[in-house]
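Fold this sequence, please.
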Amino acid sequence: MTEKKLDRTKRVAYTGLFIALVLGIGYAFVLIPNVEFVLATIFISGILLGWKTGIVVGTAGELLFSALNPFGSGLVFPLLLFFQILVGGLIGYTGGLLKRVIIYGNSYRKAAITSATAGFLLTFTYDLLTNLSYPLAAGFDMRGIIATVIAGLGFSLIHIITNTFVFLIFVPYISRLLHKVLLHLE
């Protein structure tokens, strides 16, 4: 968006659209293990709508996606759901913080590298916390926790690598494109 504030009605509408997009894109890729565009969509919402709205999209999007997931609702596993919501908010917040580099920066290369680095770190954080949720909730000792995290390492690596590339290739391009489109709608 421009530096001027979005009016309240537009902000609510865009927030709802991004939450719906999180759900739609999440369920579209749900059958492909560890390949997803949910985190990138939340990140883009923060870039375009600001960190506060990014937090709303991230927390609401993760809550709804996890709670309504047909392959297992996060409602039956509260610690996992909590970590998903927490990191969803962090992702939206981080997108908002990096808006100046990704949207307004002169160097597309710098925007892409910044986005990829953020994608790597945020996906690593998401995977670490969600992988820790089961052994922590089950009361595992440190050895059990480490064993569980190691057992999930292969899936995490796929997720982290694919998301790093998604954030590198798609996020800066889509963010800049949508920014231009939204400017014309104001």
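The radius of gyration is 17 Å. The chain has one domain: 8-185.
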